[in-house]
Every structure is written in C-alpha cells, then in structure tokens.
C-alpha cells in the first residue's frame, strides 16, 4: 500500500478514465491500473505486526542489550540463570506489544468505519448501493446533500439546470465558506441515472498530486458520432473529505481513489514518535553500558593478574580438569569477560522499560478522567491516542495552531456599524447609536429597532434622539435604507428554503424576515451581514437568474444583476452593478477600508476612518460600503469595456484589473460594518499563558491574509503594539531573498520593539526552497508568526523546518480538520480538536481535546507532572541499580574475582520486580510536587522544566554519584562493622558469605525505598501502603523463603540465614546506622539547596505553604485544625517540601487567586464540600 505524503509512482504523466468504465470496443487498448478506494491510517497488519513491532522494540538499546545477554547466558556457563534476563525481557516485549497493538487496533476500527460507509454508484443502468472501499476509478457516484465525497470526483451534473453545486472544504483547508463547482454543459443536462447511462465520455487528467488547488484535465464527450472536448479545472473537481451543501444531489465520476486522493496525499506517513525523555534514557543506558563493560574488563584483567601466581591459579580446593588446562586462553578470557558481563548486567535496568510503559499507559487515563478537560456542551472528554508522549507535554517550546475551528468557533456575528458618520452597536437585536446623530438635538442613545419604525415619523417625533424635522427624518431613513440595501445586494450569498430554522429568533426577530430562509455564503462575513440586514427590515429573499429579490419593510423589490466584479486579493474589494426598480443603474462596493476610502469622493470619510480604527482595536473584522450611480452613457461605456476584457484571450487578468479600477472610482461612502469571528472561550488567555510559559505560538491557516491577521489580533496572538512584518506575494527567488534581507535589517534596527511576521503560502515555498537559514533567522527573532494560505503539506514542512533547526525544539501542533493531519503527525506532539470539521484530526492525533483552552491545563499541569514524574523515575532507576550492582563489583576484590555472587539468585531476580518496583511506580502516577492550581496560575513555572532540564547530564551525574556513594556505604559499612566480628551470634557462630550479602541487600532495600519517600511530596494512603509495605514485604518474604525448606528448590543457600541475621542486635544497629548515614547527607543537601539556592518551583512550594492553601494535596480537602507536627518537624517539612494530607489542613478563602472550580478526577480522598 502506498505511503502517505508521497505522490505515487506512475508510468505516464496523465491518466485516461473511461466514464462508467465503458472501454472502447475496437482498436488496441491497454487499460491503466488504479488502486482501490481504501483509506489506511494504521501502522500494522495481522501479517507484519510481530516482525515490525519486534524490530521497533529491539531498536531500543536496553531491549537489544538484554537480548544479547540472554543469548550469552544460553551459550556459556554463567553465574546466573538465563531466566534472570529472559523473563523480564519477555515481559517488557509482551506488555509493549499489547499496548501498541491495542492502539493500532483502534485505528483499524476507525479506518473500517470510513471504508465501510455506504455509497451509491451507477452501474448497469441502475443505482447500486456499495461500500466506499469498492468505488473504482471511472465509477459514476451519487452524493446527496450534506454527505461527504467518498473519492475525488469530476462533477457531471447536479439538481440545478446549470450543473452547479456548493461545497464546503472545512476539513481540507479549514475554510467554512461555500465554494461553487460547475459541470461542463454537455453533462450538466444529464440529471437522471437513465440519462447518465447513455453518456459516452473520456476524462484525461494529470496523475495524482498533493496540491489541493491544482487540477488540469479535459473531457471528450461523444455525441452523435461527434467528439466535443471541454477543459477541466479545479472548479470541476470535488475533493474527498469535502461536503456537499445547498444542493439536493450531484453525480460525479471518480478520478482519484483511496490513497491517491488529494486528501490522502496530504497526510504524512505514520511514523513512530519518540519522546525526548526516551532519547535521554538511551543516552544514559549507553553511559551505563560503558560503565558495565569497563567493570567487566577491569574484573577480567584483575582476575588474570591475580591468577598469575600459581597458588591462586589452581588452589588445592579447586583443581582444574584436563580440558580446562588445555583450553584456549583467548577463549577463556572471552568466556570470563562475558561471565562478568552477565554478573554485572543488572546495572542496566530492564525493568525500567516495564515501569515506564506501565506509567505511561496507566498515567494516560488521568487525562481522560480529568473533568476540567471535559466539555459539557459537546459531551466530549479528552482522549489519549498515544500514551508514549505524556512527558513530552511538559517540554513544548513551539505551538503551531490552525485558526478556523481551533481558535475560533466558526461563527460570524454582526456587532457594530458606522452609517454616514454615526456609529451603531447591535444590542438585543436593536441598533444603538453611541452618540448624537448628525442632526439630533441631544446626545442620548437612539434606538433603531427597524426601518419600519423609522418609517413612522410620529415615532421619530417622540424619539429622544430623532427629534428632527420630517425632512431630516426622511433623509436618515434614506441613508440607512441605502446602507442596508448595499449590504443585501453586494454579495454572493445563496439561499435555501428547505430548512425550517428561522433567520433570527427572540424579541429582535423582524416581522419582515421570512422564517424559512437559510443563507449560504462563500464568505462567512457575507452571511453574517446579510442576516443582520434581514433583522433590520431589509431581507434578501433570493435570486432567480439575473433578478435579485429584496424585501424592504415588507415590500418586495426586484433588482436586475448586471455584473459582478469578483473579489481578488490585489483590489481587496468586490462590487455588483444592479438596475433598481426605478431604472437607475447603481454600483455597490464592499471591501477593506484601505481599498475603499482612497476611491471615495463623498460621504463621512474621516469619521468612518476613525470608526473603522476603533472597530479594529476591538479585534472586529471590518468592511467599508460605498456606492456610485451611473448615467446611461457611463454604463454603456462600462458594459463595453467589461465585455472586451472578459472575452480577451491574452492578458485577460490585466485588462480586467484595469476596467475594475475604471469602474470602482468616484464612490460615495455609505459606512462600515464590524463583524466578530467569535473566538472560542478563553483563547486570548490561553495564548497569553503559553507566551508567559516561554512557548512561541505560530498560527498556520489556509485563510486569506486579512482574515487571519484580524483573528490573530483579536485572539492576542498579535498585539497592537507589535511591529507587523509581511512577506507576501513574492514572485521570484531573488525578490524573496531581497525582502527577507529587508525584514532582517528592520528587526536588527528595531531590536527593542516586538515583531510579528505574516507570510503566505507562495512566499513560504520560495523562502523554504533557497533561503531556509535567512527565513529561520527572521522567524526566530519574531515574537509571533502567522502563515496564511497554507496547503496542508506546507504546514508540515514548516514544522519540520523548526524541528531540524540547531536548537532542536519540541513542537506541538493543534488543529481540527483533515487539512491539519499532516502537521499533527509531523510535530513531536499532535493534538486534535474534536470540533465541527469531522474527526480526521482527532483520529490521527496523539491527544484529542474539545476546546483550545484545555491546552493550558494539558501542558502546564499534566505535562508538568508527567515530566517531573518520569524524569525522577528514570534517574531513580539508575540510582537504585548502581546501589544494587556496585557491591557485587566490590565483592569480587574479596573473592579472587571468582564470579561468586554476593546476593542469592532469587534476590537478584526480585530486587527490581518486587522489592523496589511499586513505590516508584505509584510515585510516577500520583506525585504532585506543587498544587495544580499554582501550576496553572503561574505559567512561568513551565520554563523551569523546559529543555529537558530534569534529565540534564549534571542531574544524571548527581544521581549516579549518589548511587555509588550509597553502595560504598552499604558494602564497606557492613564489612567494617560486622565483617570480622565473630561474636555477633549468641552461639559464637561466624557470619558467612550469604549472611554478609543479605545484610548488604537489606540495608540497600530499606535505603532506596526511604530515598523514594524523601523524593515524594504528595502522600496518599496508596503511597504509604506501597512504601512501607514494600519494606515489610521484603522482611516477610525473606523469613518465609529462608525459614522453610522448599521441596521444589534444588539448592537453598539462604536457609535460616535471614532469621539468624535478624536475631543479632548488632546487625540491627548496623542497618539503622548505615540507612541514617546514607540519607542524612541527602537531607542536608536538600536543606542547604532550598535555603540558599531555591528554584522557582521550590519558592512556589514555600509560598504555597504559607498561603491559605496549606498543603500540596490538590486532590482532597480537609477540615480546619492545628497540625499534629511538632515545631521542628514542621520546619523540616516546610524546608524539604513535605506534605501529608493526614497532618496538614487545607482551606480555601474567597481571596484565593487559584481556580476554585477544579474538578479533577484525580481525587482519591473524600472531599468535604463544607470546607472546600
């Protein structure tokens, strides 16, 4: 199957498709082969799961290492059994395979859901129901209203006579506006299955490519033995993933299917993501592997140095066999080296991977259980699709976000307008002027409920702000009437009467607005404006052919649409020329203020300019409205020029631009509109929090430049004080390089000012082609970057560019549509929004949330906790394994390097699996070193854990040296305290080898468990159970293991050893003394660091301890009461950062600056609502 993100290989540049698969009956014909219509997002199949998964798992250093150790143990005689390495390795591989297999199985389910969707296909003269995966290239497919296109189709016909249909591509490019597609005239008339069955036609088009906006082809139709050739362009192609709107049904022929559709080609190949922590683990493992090999080499060399003396080479109690005397010395050296390697191999913790996998898998449930990440309106909770990246949420440096549906709600709302110099605001469906109207006698607020009320002059006479003469009142009515008529006529809105939802409801519903109209628009702004005009009494009823119908105060008026001057990004405006019922020919213009105001010669230009600036400061999207009246002679000249330009075969675009400029001049300004693209709740606060946390936010969108900048300003991504730099409409490499150089100079010269960069898709392509370094330098020096008109793969390329930059930052991508899938998969962490644009993003993401605002808690709380937990877990594992194996290495100096083990084989196996595994696992699931509310309210604390600080080489070396120092205390403390003492037992019996090893092991188990207790800031009953329970379990197990002769054990070296050890008071004294010695130094260091060099997190802990929140426990509330701790204990606990829910009270006050509505499902203890 083809990999996503790459254009598939084809032998020719074009493909020939016979519609309805009617192949020629005569002549030489070699059919082309096309793939089926299946979409595949999964990584494994039943057949390749085992080999592929094993290959990926053995790429891990530890897994591969233990496989080698296991094979060595099978091949040669080693001090320990192969089971000690083989069993943990098998467990790790099995657990990981089950977890990854389950996650991929979920992807298979979602793929099957898409591929098994029912579709209608025309076959054998009838309409046949089949599954989506069975569509073949050449099939004629029927799609009904609101259905998603199952493949890339060339439109053949629709239920409209002109063969047009309307489509929304929100899930592909993020745009929710309607796009119009048209069929060629010869097929547009074939509106039934019977007629389509007679169609004989061939489509020739380019091979599949990822560009959503590019399609070239031609259709050859055979009619009455005559061939008609029609060109096909993007307007003829209906893309998979797009949705049919405002059209009852269409028929189209499938040209690209399955993984060759443009949607699939814009997906990146699914690759295994690996977190920064896992990479650090591999680095640490390599360092420990070097330590291990060094210890094995040293032990082997010292063994042969020692055995150079004959008395030690073959002592009387250990005579060599003849075979041993004659064996090769080189092979014997290698065999001894491997034996030492096996003896010390536990310094590499295989159980680390088991614990990490369990921690990630179990820890991921807390995200789904967190009620603060639950969205009640949509009944959606957070989802975890990949638990391997939990800790990566705490390392994010760049956030790349889509705009439409991610930052916004996809809902435009009319807010304000300026009419003839007077500013109005819509409040409860009424227009409220913010000051006196031009001719009013006082400054009280005036209410314009509808033009119907304005038409009532008696109402005007009594209105406080319309106390004017009848002439002035009539003039005011005319101004508003003309303004809203411009709004109702200057657009490309389509209308549907199928829906029953009213245009408006509530007290502001206009009595003139038809209750069954539903507007569809190519721009969401246009839809909001037309609906607003309808609320104020001028209702666009629809158009039939060239006639546009408008109801003004209940009276139907018909305007003849003469010309549409389409919007283009250079003019930044659109116009319509209409003939009024009175015969007047009017030009209505709508566009950005920068393109309208310079062309105006009349109207309140300066007042409107001020109002537009005020609207923009509020983050509203602004448009200016103007008009012009033509004389008959002027219109004839305009009509002639338009006809010549539109029929020109050469330089058509330039000629049209000239004519448009000639028409759109000498305008009379009517006013301006202000529309709000409604942002999601708390988007501005979230972006500001991300910025405070040191995270750079980039907005990547397929929207137009103006729209994207407007939303960036309103959501706080761009600040008003920010210097906005633009890299737009670059045509060549040299032009792009020159512009980038200019921007770089401006940044250097204005280094104090914050800069924001705006770049479009075409300019970005040029910048990435030849000038990557210069472009990246400009971007890194900008506080915010916004990329508009981005194709899906361009989004992924931008993220890849940042990923491979010298700093290697951790990236996060968040989006809600299929157009965002490639960037979600490219980023280190991909987050899908479960929004209105389908579930492709959520299905292909690592995490899925319902709203953008949830990102702050996901990163600042969950990400912070996961990173701290797993960083401590990794370093603690290396620490306890150094403690474990270093005494074994030191013991070889006292046993002539005979490879004698210090510990019993059962202890060797169970040390990491049973005795020390649970405390660190529970810590890594429940630890909260600081209150979640503090983390969310102080985003700057996120900086303290960025750039993998907790797993730096300095911290790693500290834990390693700590492990070695504790190991030396265990071994030499035991040796000097009781190693040569014969009177420790009452009967005068000496301590033996196993007793000595058991004493070292006992001190070690207690010390490493107590060390974990020292690192724990947040205590629950579970922590107490596993911490003290692990020590108790070790003692109980050792008593049973050594106190009974087990019949299934071939040898039992530990029989009665542990019982004898515990019967010695000196042994107990030695255990207590060594444990206290080890931990005292650690406590002193912690106290010193917290008092004289506290980190920001430690300062926050101390501040929190002194505030009304008196406990680090965010999961439970406790009643007021005096702490049970003594004064010295309280001081130590405060210094060390200790908190015990059973000892410390917690109360909330009304003045607390923290979120008091935290409903985290992490709650483990009963909450007393009376004290919360």
Automatic annotation (TrEMBL):
It is found in: Early endosome; Endoplasmic reticulum; Golgi apparatus, trans-Golgi network; Membrane. InterPro entries: ATPase_P-typ_cyto_dom_N (IPR023299), ATPase_P-typ_P_site (IPR018303), ATPase_P-typ_TM_dom_sf (IPR023298), ATPase_P-typ_transduc_dom_A_sf (IPR008250), ATPase_P-type_domA (IPR059000), HAD-like_sf (IPR036412), HAD_sf (IPR023214), P-type_ATPase_IV (IPR006539). GO terms for cellular component: early endosome; endoplasmic reticulum; Golgi apparatus; plasma membrane; recycling endosome membrane. The active site is at residue 402. SUPFAM superfamilies: Calcium ATPase, transduction domain A, Calcium ATPase, transmembrane domain M, HAD-like, Metal cation-transporting ATPase, ATP-binding domain N. ATP binds at residues 402-404, 526, 567, 590, 621, 701-703, 789, 795, 819-820. It comes from Capra hircus (Goat). Mg(2+) binds at residues 402, 404, 816, 820. The chain crosses the membrane at residues 283-306, 337-356, 858-879, 956-978, 990-1013, 1025-1049, 1055-1081. The gene is ATP11B. CDD domains: P-type_ATPase_APLT_Dnf-like. Residues 842-1095 form the P-type ATPase C-terminal domain. Gene3D superfamilies: Calcium-transporting ATPase, cytoplasmic domain N, Calcium-transporting ATPase, cytoplasmic transduction domain A, HAD superfamily/HAD-like. It holds the Pfam family Cation_ATPase. One of its GO terms (biological process) is phospholipid translocation. The keyword Protein biosynthesis does not apply. Belongs to the cation transport ATPase (P-type) (TC 3.A.3) family. Type IV subfamily. This is Phospholipid-transporting ATPase. One of its GO terms (molecular function) is phosphatidylserine floppase activity. It is a multi-pass membrane protein. Keywords: ATP-binding, Endoplasmic reticulum, Endosome, Golgi apparatus, Lipid transport, Magnesium, Membrane, Metal-binding, Nucleotide-binding, Translocase, Transmembrane, Transmembrane helix, Transport.
């Amino acid at each position: 199957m083809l990999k996503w993100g790459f254009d598939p290989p084809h032998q020719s540049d074009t493909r020939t498709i016979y519609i309805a698969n009617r192949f020629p009956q005569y002549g030489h014909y070699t059919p082309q082969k096309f793939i089926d219509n299946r979409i595949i997002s999964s990584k494994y199949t039943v057949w390749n799961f085992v080999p592929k998964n094993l290959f990926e798992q053995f790429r891990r250093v530890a897994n591969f290492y233990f496989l080698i150790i296991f094979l060595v143990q099978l091949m040669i005689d080693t001090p320990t059994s192969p089971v000690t390495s083989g069993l943990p390795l098998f467990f790790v591989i099995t657990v990981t395979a089950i977890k990854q297999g389950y996650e991929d199985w979920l992807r298979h389910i979602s793929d099957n859901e898409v591929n098994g969707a029912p579709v209608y296909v025309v076959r054998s003269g009838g309409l046949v129901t089949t599954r989506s995966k069975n569509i073949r290239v050449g099939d004629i497919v029927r799609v009904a209203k609101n259905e998603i296109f199952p493949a890339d189709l060339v439109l053949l016909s629709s239920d409209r006579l002109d063969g047009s249909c309307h489509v929304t591509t929100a899930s592909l490019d993020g745009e929710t506006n309607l796009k119009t597609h048209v069929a060629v005239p010869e097929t547009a008339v074939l509106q039934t299955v019977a007629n389509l069955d007679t169609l004989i036609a061939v489509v020739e088009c380019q091979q599949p490519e990822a560009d959503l906006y590019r399609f070239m082809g031609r259709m050859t139709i055979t009619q009455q033995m005559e061939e008609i050739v029609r060109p096909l362009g993007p307007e003829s192609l209906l893309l998979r993933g797009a949705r049919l709107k405002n059209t009852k049904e269409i028929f189209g022929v499938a040209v690209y299917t399955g993984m060759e559709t443009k949607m699939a080609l814009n997906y990146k190949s699914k690759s295994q993501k690996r977190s920064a922590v896992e990479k650090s683990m591999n680095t640490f493992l390599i360092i420990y592997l070097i330590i291990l090999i060094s210890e094995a080499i040293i032990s082997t060399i010292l063994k042969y140095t020692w055995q150079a003396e004959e008395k030690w080479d073959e002592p009387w109690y250990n005579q060599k066999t003849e075979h041993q005397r004659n064996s090769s010395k080189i092979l014997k050296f290698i065999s001894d080296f491997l034996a030492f390697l096996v003896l010390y191999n536990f310094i590499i913790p295989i159980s680390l991977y088991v614990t990490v996998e369990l921690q990630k898998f179990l820890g991921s449930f807390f995200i789904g259980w967190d009620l603060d990440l639950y969205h009640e309106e949509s009944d959606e909770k957070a989802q975890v699709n990949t638990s391997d990246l939990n800790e990566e949420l705490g390392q994010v440096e760049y956030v790349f976000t889509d705009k439409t549906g991610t930052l916004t709600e996809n809902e435009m709302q009319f807010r304000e307008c300026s009419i003839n110099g007077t500013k109005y605001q819509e409040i409860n469906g009424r227009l409220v002027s913010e000051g006196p109207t031009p001719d009013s006698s006082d400054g009280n607020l005036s209410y314009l409920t509808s033009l119907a009320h304005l038409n009532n002059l008696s109402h005007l006479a009594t209105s406080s702000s319309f106390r004017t003469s009848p002439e002035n009142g009539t003039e005011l009515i005319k101004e508003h009437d003309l303004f809203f008529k411009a709004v109702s006529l200057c657009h490309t809105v389509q209308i549907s009467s199928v829906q029953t939802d009213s245009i408006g409801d509530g007290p502001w519903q206009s009595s003139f607005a038809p209750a069954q109209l539903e507007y569809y628009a190519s721009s969401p702004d246009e839809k909001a404006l037309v609906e607003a005009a309808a609320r104020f009494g001028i209702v666009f009823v629809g158009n039939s052919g060239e006639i546009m119908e408008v109801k003004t105060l209940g009276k139907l008026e018909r305007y003849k649409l003469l010309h549409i001057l389409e919007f283009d990004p250079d003019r930044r405006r659109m116009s319509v020329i209409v003939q009024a019922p009175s015969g007047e020919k009017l030009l209505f213009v709508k566009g950005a203020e920068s393109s309208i105001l310079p062309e105006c010669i009349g109207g309140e230009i300066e007042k409107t300019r001020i109002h537009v600036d005020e609207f923009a400061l509020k983050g509203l999207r602004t448009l200016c409205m103007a008009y012009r009246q033509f004389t008959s002679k002027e219109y004839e000249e305009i009509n002639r020029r338009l006809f010549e330009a539109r029929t020109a075969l050469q330089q058509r675009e330039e000629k049209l631009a000239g004519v448009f400029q000639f028409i759109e001049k000498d305008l009379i300004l009517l006013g301006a509109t202000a529309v709000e693209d409604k942002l999601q709740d708390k988007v501005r606060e979230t972006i500001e929090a991300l910025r405070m946390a040191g995270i750079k936010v980039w907005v990547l969108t397929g929207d137009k430049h103006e729209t994207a900048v407007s939303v960036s300003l309103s959501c706080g991504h761009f600040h008003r004080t920010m210097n906005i730099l633009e890299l737009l409409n670059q045509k060549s490499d040299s032009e792009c390089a020159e512009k980038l150089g200019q921007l770089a100079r401006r940044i250097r010269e204005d280094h104090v000012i914050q800069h924001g960069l705006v770049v479009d898709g075409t300019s970005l392509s040029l910048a990435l082609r030849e000038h990557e370094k210069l472009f990246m330098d400009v971007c890194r020096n900008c506080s915010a970057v916004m990329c508009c008109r981005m194709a899906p793969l361009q989004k992924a390329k931008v993220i890849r560019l940042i990923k491979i930059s010298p700093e290697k930052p951790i990236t996060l991508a968040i989006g809600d549509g299929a157009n965002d899938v490639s960037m979600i998969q490219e980023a280190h962490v991909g987050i899908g929004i479960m929004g209105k644009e389908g579930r492709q993003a959520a299905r292909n993401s690592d995490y899925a949330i319902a709203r953008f605002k949830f990102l702050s808690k996901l990163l600042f709380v969950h990400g912070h906790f996961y990173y701290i937990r797993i960083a401590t877990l990794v370093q603690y594992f290396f620490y306890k394994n150094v403690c474990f194996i270093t005494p074994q290495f030191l013991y070889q100096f006292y046993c002539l390097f005979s490879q004698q083990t210090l510990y019993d084989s059962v202890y060797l196996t169970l040390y990491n699996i049973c005795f020390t595994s649970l405390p660190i696992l529970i810590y890594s699931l429940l630890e909260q070193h600081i209150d979640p509310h503090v983390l969310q309210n102080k985003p700057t604390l996120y900086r303290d854990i960025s750039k993998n600080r907790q797993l730096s080489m300095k911290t790693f070396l500290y834990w390693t040296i700590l492990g070695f120092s504790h190991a030396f205390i265990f071994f030499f403390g035991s040796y000097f305290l009781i190693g040569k003492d014969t009177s420790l037992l009452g009967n005068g019996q000496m301590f033996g080898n196993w007793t000595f090893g058991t004493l070292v092991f006992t001190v070690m188990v207690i010390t490493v468990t107590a060390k974990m207790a020292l690192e724990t800031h947040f205590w629950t009953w579970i922590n107490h159970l596993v911490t003290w329970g692990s020590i108790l379990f070790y003692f109980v197990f050792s008593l049973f293991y050594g106190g009974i002769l087990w019949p299934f054990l071939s040898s039992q070296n530990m029989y009665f050893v542990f019982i004898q050890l515990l019967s010695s008071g000196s042994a107990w004294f030695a255990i207590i003394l060594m444990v206290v010695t080890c931990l005292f130094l650690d406590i002193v260091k912690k106290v010193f660091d917290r008092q004289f060099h506290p980190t920001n997190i430690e300062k926050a802990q101390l501040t929190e301890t002194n505030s009304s929140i008196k406990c680090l426990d965010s999961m439970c509330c406790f009643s007021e009461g005096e702490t049970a701790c003594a004064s010295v204990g309280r001081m130590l606990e405060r210094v060390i950062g200790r908190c015990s829910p059973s000892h410390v009270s917690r109360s909330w006050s009304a003045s607390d600056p923290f979120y008091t509505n935290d409903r985290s499902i992490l709650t483990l203890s009963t909450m007393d609502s009376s004290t919360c």
